Amino acid sequence: MKKSYTPCEKIPTCKILGVNIAAINMEWLVNFLVDHIKSLSGQYICVSNVHTTVMGYEESDYRAILNNSLMSIPDGGPLSTIGRRWGYVKMSRTTGPDLMKEIFELSSNKGYRHYFYGSTESTLKKMRINLLKDYPGLDIVGMYSPPFRPIAAMEDEKIMQQINETKPDFIWVGLGAPKQEKWMAYHKDKINGLMIGVGAGFDYYAENIKRAPLWMQKFNLEWLYRLLQDPKRLFKRYLRTNIKFLWLIKRGV
């Protein structure tokens, strides 16, 4: 599939630890997607936070994946806070789940078609039920839970064909970082529709985990709320990447 996106307007970016973070806010992002969705087929958007930004700083291959995306939006509050300090005054946090909500609310009137790739069969089933309840008329054209084992080339071709046959506008990818970014980069210009890696977004809409209270989101503490829900998996990750991020920013890297 040929690349269909032609830049219609410049996407402002703020380079943080070598990663090009989109210096945008939710209103700008939604308007951009609504205006250009038909020309974005085959592209991908990364939802970036402190963890993925530090990984991008440490790993050149992963940094290239982030920087070769259509854009890496500031899911992590510290990214937008730093951006505003550096002069991008309209930059604000744009989380994956919030972006999903904004697009879902527009979908019935816009006729958007949605495909969901990732997570488990159980989570996808619960998410479908909740989405159709909360967003009547949402056009879910397909869902696929990939195996945890490596996928052979012929199997991947079949999956791509299945996705493309549904003609989605949005392909929401919930594999977690860095797997979802690598998957999207590999399938760039091969899959019809705009791919957006939303990490835990599937779990939120399946109600497997809860979003932080609004006051915690406002003060960039959603990471702490997630840590309290899943300390065993997240403690070492947050301890290392958050401290390193603050240290590197203070050094002016």
Question: Can you describe what's shown?
Answer:
It is a single chain. By secondary structure, this protein is an alpha/beta fold. It has a single domain (13-205), classed as 3-Layer(aba) Sandwich (Rossmann fold), CATH 3.40.50. It is built from twelve helices and eight strands. The strands form two sheets. It has a six-stranded parallel beta sheet, sandwiched between helices. Strands 1-2 form a two-stranded antiparallel sheet. A hairpin with a 2-residue loop joins strand 1 (13-16) and strand 2 (19-22).
Brief write-up:
The chain is of the alpha/beta class and 253 residues long. The protein is 50% helix and 15% strand.
**Do you know the CATH architecture?**
3-Layer(aba) Sandwich
Task: Extract low-pLDDT stretches.
Answer: none
According to DSSP, the number of beta strands is: 8
CATH classification, class level: Alpha Beta
Distance between the termini: 38 Å
Helix segment tally: 12
Q: How are the strands of the largest sheet arranged?
A: 4-3-8-7-5-6
Helix percent reads: 40-55%
Structural class: alpha/beta
In round numbers, the mean pLDDT is 92
> What Rg, in angstroms, do the CA atoms define?
17 Å
Number of domains: 1
Question: Could you give the order of the helices and strands?
Answer: EEHEHHEHHEHEHEHEHHHH
Beta content: 15-25%
CATH fold label: Rossmann fold
Largest sheet: 6 strands, parallel
Please state the overall shape, judged from the principal axes of the Cα atoms. Answer: globular
InterPro entries: WecG_TagA_CpsF
Keywords: Glycosyltransferase, Transferase
Protein name: Glycosyl transferase
GO molecular function, one term: hexosyltransferase activity
